[in-house]
Fold these 2 entries.
Entry 1:
Amino acid sequence: MRKRDYLGQFELMVLLAILQAGEDAYGVPIAREIEDTTGKEVALGSIYAALDRLEAKGLVASELGDPTPERGGRAKRYFRVTGKGVREAREAQRTLKKLWSGLPELEGRKA
Amino acid sequence: VKPPQPASWLLTRFVRNDSFIGDLDEERSNGRSAVWYWRQLISAVLVATLNEIREHKIFAIRAVVIGYALAWLYFTYVWPWAFSVAFWMINFHEFLFTAGLTDWFYLHHVRLPTALLRFIRPGTLAMGWLAIGWVVGRLHGARIALAFTVIYVCGLLPEISPLVLRRGVGVIPSVSGVLCLAYISVLVGGLWGSARVAGGNA
């Protein structure tokens, strides 16, 4: 069987957060999206580490925007999910759904 | 809001990601607290260090091997000599007197304060640790130097714990002092050494 590089939970969250943020997907909105969903603070450093890994796997692509004064003259790095990334996210969803199904403890029924 | 100088220094040395630094500045100017800023910065430094180790395992192992080899060389061969030299330098009036060179300093009470004797051991230890950190930082960059510092100081614990068991909890303050001195010296040496590497990292 071919060895498959599965998406980690955090990587999947980052991937979905990019899709949710749409055109404006750079570090801050991605982190905010995850924070709003999970209710927990996330480290921006972890987001960038996950983004670097996703980019290395070809699941996201990035490009630099224009520098702005409130960012100390530094440019935003905008991310978008590639076709391969969308396929991976769908695959992860399918896998999780399959694993999820038939587990009464997790579907609110009594085991 | 301009980030504090030490923060900028740490970010350029360890994180080296302009977009990330820009995001931090943007959030700070949007009203995030200084505590939030520093928490993000420290976690970014740790994440960057762990990533560096994960991506360059052999490089990281090489740093540990070189660091420990240098520590062995220093504490086996150089430290006893450095300790004696420092001792004689502080007691130079006695040294000159007993060697029969001159008794002028001895007779005229020209001497260094004896309080300096207390600093011989920590001083010569710190010099060695500083040098070890410097070499590791120079060859491997700031992130690996930070990782090596943590590994090295943790490695001192098995050496020190029997002392605590033998002499009781009374030695804990001096043991913690030695550990702090080791941590600071190796880290400062590492950061100093890595500052000479282009871009702060190999």
Note: The two ends of chain B are 31 Å apart (CA to CA).
Entry 2:
Amino acid sequence: MTSSAVLERRVRLALALLLSVGLALRLLAVAWDPPLQPDEYYQYLEPAWWHLTGMGLEPWEFRAGVRSWVLPFYNGAWMALLRQLGVTSGATLGLLVKAHWAAINLSLVVLAFRGGASISRRLAPAGTTAPTGAQAGWEGGLLAAATCALFPLLVSYAGHTLSELPSMLCAVAGLVLTSELLEDGRADSPAALRKAAWVGILVSSSACLRIVNGPLALVAPAWLLARGRLRPLGVLLAAGLVPVLVFGLVDLITWGSFAHSFVGYVRHNLIEGKAADYGTEPPDWYLRALAQRAGLALPLLLLPALLGLRAAWPFVISALGLLLYMSTQPHKEERFIVAFWPLLLIAAGGSLGGLLARLRATSMALVEGPSRVPAQERRWQRYLPWCAALWVVLISLGASRSLRSSDAWVGQVDRLRALSWAGAQRDIIGLIGDVPMTGGALWFSDRVPQFMFDPALLSSPIITHALAQAGSDEEQRALAAGFIPIHRVGEYRVLRRR
Amino acid sequence: MVDMPDCASDASTTETLALERTYRAVRRWLVTVVLAAWCVGALLFLRADGSLHWRIERSAAPPASEHNAAFYRFGPTLRASSYHREVPSPHHSIFLVDARAEPALLEKWTSDARDRAPWIEIGWREPRRLSRVVIYHAGWREHESLTVRRYRLSCLVEGDVRAASLDVTDNVAAIATHPLACERARGLRIDWTPNDASDQVRIYEVEAWAQ
């Protein structure tokens, strides 16, 4: 077997190993990191649930028509299929949909490999890596793939049904394909134009799935324009219209006018600034959040990314651009800038891989060149892979100070489990709870209603169960009204009318 | 180091190519299966109409004498084209059959704002001789303009067949009693016409008196 075939096989094995570890971690995260953000069920799961079962809570966004039905429809199709196959519990369906998104998130590892390899190839001096084949630029590819497979924030977010995640995948895929396209000297070949069409579909989908990620979609066409690749640029722009048409027509069917949710979203959040009703943060909030989340990992990522800026600039600009313009918005949440991480990880991994390849090439030149260097003086070469592995470990550990995707709603985990338990009770007719902000009807029931805690409802005979925090006023009132505790999950109690 | 072609490397290349072909075939097959499965789910999703269907657990046996067959304790089946799902105060259809004498404003069924042809169905477990239907409109507890003026009552018999119907066109009574004689009735359906195009239907209670 030739050495390049051995290398290719090793690279494939390493990538397969990373995919396996990445999948295992993501599935663990699905079990460990339940749906914590109200948006992830109210915006993307609950509408599908009520369309299928007739039961569900409606957030204001779906009354005002500022959300697209595309993602609820996509999730709902899986739910409908699974219900047909006998999986009727909302909580189980929710977990399966989460697991499916976690599996899709694994494509990030492959994308990171391709993006990192592409950057690495651009940085490596000519002749040090094969121009084609799976092993070309492998150093950067594997480093980027390893960091994306293991990075705690990406792992914990993987299974969350938020629009940020598919939008992030599309944006990253678009940029990676653009990078590969620009490596191809034959810019107008059918393969290059096909790739350009995919880039158009991907970056446009990224913006359609999450409108505020729109500026990210501009980097790929700007890159092509800067390199004078006008024909692929034209194909990209034309293909980019396809998702716009699909999303616009779905709005026309569901909301009554073309791109209704897009217009409503922009007006509500960006023009009228009503997103600020959910809290405002100072402009440097994201910087502090990144530093707090990543700690030591941040400089370890920024340094190689900046060293390899010559090849990695579109990724770095995308990451920093996202950070900058999201910082101008008053309402800030960490999930809004989750795409920052894979962009930076690919830039850093690819750049570091390129630098390693350059070092190796220099040392090979010394060995084979006229002034041969003795073997003992080249021993440092052996430590290069270990240094790279240490870099990956340090990044993963540095960013693992907080493993959950959100700290804001962690207190709701017990409530979610208690809610699911209550919904499965055979004799339940109606539930009164403290705040219906967790789980919606999906995590509760496909028929039984739940209501906000209202003393007037305590006397209603159809309110058979109550859910309250142990020791809370609500629990005291329920006890006084004749309810008795029947189940406890952490701080939460389920009570039943005597 | 320069790679030297030999027989072993040829065999390895052939093996790699075969593996590559198998991998591509498996990937294509998997993508096709997943897409087909999703399409089936999408069709099922599109077929759903968002209506609610709930058979309530029976907690009391109905008496032999005349009684309200819709009462929740007798375990009726509740169906509704929609309900007002707003967080945090949903107006669920269970309130139609709770027999509350002094309900709070929340305790009524309200159709969804986008539901232009709202309807409800209340089914009971055994055939009954239906005699009258009593409807407690929102005008009972709230402004009289919320009382629905036009609706159609239909008696459902076995197989959800509509046996008898009554069109109400000019109702003004907040508590409206409608005679509806029907043998072997298994349920009641009411098709509502909102008072104006943008209005919702608001009903506190429906009673189906039967024996």
Note: Chain A has 23 helices and five strands.
